[in-house]
Amino acid sequence: MVYSFKGYTPVVHKTSFVHPLAAVTGNVIIGRDCYIGPGAAIRGDWGQIILEDGVNVQENCTVHMFPGKSITLKESAHVGHGAIIHGANLGRNCLIGMNAVIMDDAEIGDESIIGAMTFVKADTKIPERSLVVGNPAKVVKQVSDEMIEWKTKGTQLYQRLPQECHETLREVEPLREVPENMKVQDDIYKTLRETFKK
Predict the structure, then answer these.
(1) What does each C-alpha distance from 160 to 16, 21, 33, 155, 190 come to in angstroms?
(2) Which candidate, 27, 90, 134, 166, has a CA 20 to 30 Å from the CA of 121?
(3) CDD domains, from UniProt (predicted)?
(4) CA-based nearest residue to 165, from 38, 40, 78, 55
């Protein structure tokens, strides 16, 4: 659902996809090839939220801020399931892991990876290409070229997803039996652990 608020109407590029069970409100600008998953809430009621091209905000994420703040999720930022971005800015091609919390006025550097369930305190500045984990967040090492290549390929899957949703996603009645010829999807992307195991 997309809602106008106090005269601010969200702008969503035609190549992007906002799931009908997501909520996008107010002063929100969504660029090209962005994916907004079901249960996501992007609330531009108190400030402007900009999603640059190729950003994905996955299922059950929240993007919001204190009044008067404006934030940007830069090109190809990747926000994993259940994460909260509250008044923080995300750098280009970064990855925010599942259920991570990024607090007010934090800055996540370009091509950084924030681990699942990490808590980034308010005003924290994460340098580019940092691997960050823990509560509170701690930089544990630099992101390698191989790691950022893995991340980028994963984000590219999400950048193709909006077109696939526009073309094939339909509300339907469920089948009552499993078809005999039902296929399993192809194995097109490995986990980080699978990618780097020796």
Answers:
(1) 10, 20, 7, 9, 17
(2) 27
(3) LbH_paaY_like
(4) 38
Amino acid at 141: K
Residue 40's identity, in one-letter code, is: A
* pLDDT tens, residue by residue, 76-113: 999 999 999 999 999 999 999 999 999 999 999 999 99
Residue 142 structure tokens:
């630099």
User: What pairs with residue 96 in β-bridges?
Assistant: 79, 114
Model-wide pTM > 0.85: yes
Spell out the domains of the chain, with CATH numbers in brackets: 2-142 (2.160.10.10)
Q: Token match 């607090």: residue?
A: 103
Question: How far apart (Å, rounded) are the C-alpha atoms in residues 134 and 70?
Answer: 26
List the structure tokens of 178: 């499993």
